[in-house]
Specification:
- This protein has 798 residues and is α+β, with helices and mostly antiparallel strands.
- The protein is built from 19 helices and 34 strands.
- The strands form ten sheets. A six-stranded antiparallel β-barrel has the order 9-10-16-15-12-17. The protein has a four-stranded parallel beta sheet with strand order 2-1-7-8, sandwiched between helices. It has a four-stranded antiparallel beta sheet with strand order 20-21-22-23.
- A hairpin with a 2-residue loop joins strand 32 and strand 33.
- The termini are far apart.
Length: 798
């Protein structure tokens, strides 16, 4: 045995260079430039294997439900070529380093690569790094390890649980709500948060309250005007819920008394306060800050951060500008902390504290936070935003600057202020004015202070107790309490994090999924629950309260974390969950009341026959249908449900018509780009194979059959010139910006349904097709001259 193991390295070294496999082509390109000759760097382009979904019923789970829930993996469609290329490269390599991302998903991808490429434990060298820099990658290559099967087990457990829940609940929804709906273990709970907020808003009853503000000036010394607000009257607070601020009558009495009153400065109090810098970014706080300050959606933020992490071509070469962006720890590496402190000491010596500030992971929602990764920070503080700006897109620069400033500011001194409160007495009331003076700007030289509450400060005159003041202005304003604020992407992430639902790597995907399913929509950057989402949420809560429970979902996350730490077994975790769950699913499918056909409570009537309307559901959302169906097939859209805002995806795309930003939207036919200037500009574009918008050429033509001006449309087979005349409907394909000429249909009608026939083009040439497709699929060949062929024999006889 010793001789065999000694001979193995010689055989391996004779093979050739070393192979490094990463997830993305962009990262592969960056690392290849760092490592140079002797290394081959290839990308798996994400996962290469997933659970099998072939078969019917529980066979489609891709999980052996009878034998420990072992997954049944298959190569993902479209990835066979990638796997074959990686396998061939691995066979030639002297050493194979598996270098996907340093998290649970990355560890699973590394394990799948090992299995798919046929590598043994000794051959599969796992390396991880927090930043794509030459130093970090080189150190990782010098210190490979074996694949962490605890991490892999945690990912397996999550994937199996999600498959069991999704593939069990979806058929239930098909039967009880509408076909082709889907539900997820974590996404359904996120929808619940939005639905409950929707109901809180609907149930909200506004309360009246009054505010009285004044403008005063001292009658002696410093006569600078200042604003003071009434805070109490006759010892009772003058605010929401206060006896004198609740009605107009009592507020007007107070107003009259104050207009006639004498004003005296009762007290002037000053105190010093300080404000601490915020911790460096974790995934959720980065998404929240990017949403609030840059107006980036969560998905857009993560896409831009991914590019900054994977590498940017600078003058010094390709290098990752930030550390790994999926983390829930705000910890900074000691070496990075020292570099940041040196930078502050050189440029802002007065702002450097005596010792480093330490940050770390804190439990959220009762769920232990992982501390495997650092905070999201610049890989080098010396790469200031201005120095790398020429190499970045506008979006990349904005996000990098946000990360850089937050990181550096986190190691600066507190900002210090002197807060002065002036209390003024008038009649039976007390008024207050607040001012603040900055004593030391501290960290705010780089990042703004995050204010708590809605306190407004002003520059106050230098006053002393006992001075008299005169009234310049007085306003009494009626106010009403506002309903709870809707979730934005940022506040939804904060709520998910607080409840312990999801993980840094899943927040953006959760939001994207529930929007794409049509359960919620984002209008003016605020989430609204759609009727379909409300219906699905309600039936799932009624029939599966455990699955929809926040604490249960959070505890499941904790259990998966325990698997990751090696203190729990994922097979046992899934086993404890599966049996009672599947029994409940079977029972609910038999006994649950379907939601289809509930009476619509609005005033709308069937547009065809005037009968009552009922709620109906489809994969694309809720709609209203006639209660007399199938005798009457009247339909109308559900009132009050607007369109989703859409989003930008990657680099910004400007409308070629008006120049405004194009937004990525979803429809039943898939994703497309639409101008943000709608309805003034109705420009749209389909997505090409590369994910980029494909704009239609500007072509004009009158129909060569009926003379009607034709319109250019985008269809699955490409751009087409379409005649809008309902009695014609002629179509001419567009190839390479040119209109393709086709034979004329000469007014032919379909003998099966009476609709106009048109000439279409297939790979085998032009043919006649019924415009009633897909209800009528009648089609005919054209003869050699382009005329309609004679009908078949059977028709000839008639």
């Amino acid at each position: 045995m010793p001789q065999a193991s000694a001979a193995a390295p010689k055989k391996a070294s004779a093979k050739g260079g070393k192979l490094v496999i990463v997830e993305s082509p962009a990262k592969a390109k960056t690392i290849k430039k760092m490592l140079g000759r002797g290394y081959s760097v290839m990308a798996s382009v994400g996962h290469i294997r997933d659970l099998d979904s072939k078969g019917r019923g529980k066979k489609a789970f891709g999980v052996d439900l009878e034998n420990g829930f072992e997954p049944r993996y298959v190569v993902i469609p479209g990835k066979k070529k990638t796997v074959d290329e990686l396998k061939a490269a691995a066979a030639k390599a002297s050493e194979v380093y598996l270098a996907p991302d340093p998290d649970r998903e990355g560890e699973a991808i590394a394990w799948h690569l090992k299995e798919a490429l046929g590598l043994n434990d000794e051959q599969a060298k796992r390396i991880t790094y927090q930043a794509v820099t030459k130093k970090a990658v080189t150190e990782a290559l010098e210190n490979p390890r074996s694949i962490d099967m605890n991490l892999v087990g945690a990912q397996k457990g999550r994937r199996v649980l999600d498959r069991i829940v999704g593939f069990s609940l979806s058929p239930f929804l098909w039967k009880k709500v509408a076909k082709n709906l889907s539900a997820g273990r974590v996404q359904s709970v996120a929808v619940r948060l939005i639905v409950e907020k929707e109901r809180d808003i609907e149930a909200f009853v506004p309360q009246e309250f009054w505010k009285i503000d004044t403008v005063l000036h001292a009658e002696e010394k410093d006569q600078t005007p200042f604003k003071a607000s009434l805070v109490s009257w006759k010892g009772d607070k003058f605010a929401l819920g206060g006896q004198y601020a609740s009605t107009e009558g009592s507020a007007r009495e107070v107003e009259a008394a104050l207009r006639a009153a004498d004003y005296r400065v009762a007290d002037v109090a000053s105190k010093d306060t300080s404000s601490k810098p915020q911790a460096p970014f974790i995934t959720s706080t980065l998404q929240q800050a990017a949403s609030g300050q840059l107006r980036f959606g969560t998905r857009r933020t993560m896409q831009i951060a991914q590019k900054l992490y994977e590498g940017i071509e600078l003058e010094e070469g390709a290098v990752g500008l930030i550390t790994y962006m999926r983390t829930d720890s705000s910890r900074l590496d000691p070496e990075a902390t020292e570099e940041i402190r040196n930078w502050i000491g050189d440029r802002y010596p007065d702002h450097l504290p005596e010792s480093a500030r330490n940050y770390g992971a804190k439990p959220k929602g009762g769920v232990k936070t992982q501390d495997a990764h650092e905070a999201v920070r610049p890989t080098s503080v010396e790469r200031t935003p201005e120095s790398v700006k020429p190499y970045l897109s506008a979006e990349q620069y904005k996000l990098y600057e946000l990360i850089w400033r937050r990181t550096v500011a986190s190691q600066m001194k507190d900002a210090r202020y002197a807060v002065t409160t002036i209390k003024v007495e008038a009649a039976d009331g007390v008024l207050e004015a607040k001012g603040r003076v900055t004593l030391f700007d501290g960290f705010t030289v780089l990042t703004p202070e995050v204010k708590k509450g809605k306190e407004e400060y002003q520059n106050l005159p230098a006053l002393e107790g006992g001075e008299t003041a005169s009234l310049d202005e007085l306003t009494a304003e009626q106010n009403w309490t506002k309903p709870p604020a809707r979730y934005t992407e940022a506040s939804l992430v904060r709520a998910l994090e607080k409840e312990g639902i999801g993980r840094p790597s899943t927040y953006a995907a959760i939001i994207q999924t529930i929007r794409e399913r049509g359960y919620v929509r984002l209008e003016k950057r605020a989430f609204h629950a759609n009727e379909l989402g409300i219906a699905v949420n309600d039936i799932l809560i009624r029939e599966f309260p455990q699955i929809m429970d926040f604490k249960f979902t959070a505890s499941m996350e904790s259990n998966l974390d325990a698997v990751e730490e090696g203190s729990a077994d994922w097979h046992e975790l899934v086993g404890e969950f599966y049996k009672p769950f599947v029994e409940r699913v079977d029972e609910a499918i038999e006994t649950a009341e379907p939601l289809k056909g509930r009476k619509w409570e609005g005033s709308e009537k069937c547009p065809v026959c005037g009968s009552h309307l009922v709620l109906r559901y489809s994969k694309t959302g809720a709609f209203l249908g006639c209660s007399e169906y199938p005798e009457c097939k009247g339909l109308m859209p559900l009132p009050g449900e607007g369109a989703d805002d859409g989003e930008t995806d990657g680099e910004p795309v400007n409308c070629p018509t008006c120049g405004k930003l194009m937004l990525l939207k979803s429809s039943r036919y898939g994703k497309f780009y639409a101008c943000s200037g709608y309805p003034d500009c109705k420009t749209t574009a389909n997505l090409g194979a590369d994910g980029q918008p494909v704009f239609l050429p500007d072509l004009k033509m009158d129909c060569d059959e009926c003379g009607t001006p034709m319109e250019i449309k985008s269809k699955k087979r490409g751009p087409v010139m379409v005649c809008p005349n309902a009695d014609c409907k002629r179509e001419l394909p567009v190839k390479d910006g040119e209109i393709v000429s086709l034979p004329k249909a000469n007014g032919a009608k379909c003998e099966k349904c009476g609709s106009p026939m048109i000439v279409r083009l297939s790979r085998r040439g032009p043919f006649l097709a019924c415009t009633g497709f897909p209800k009528c699929r009648n089609a005919k060949n054209l003869d050699q001259t382009g005329a309609v062929e004679k009908p078949a024999d059977k028709s000839e006889e008639t």
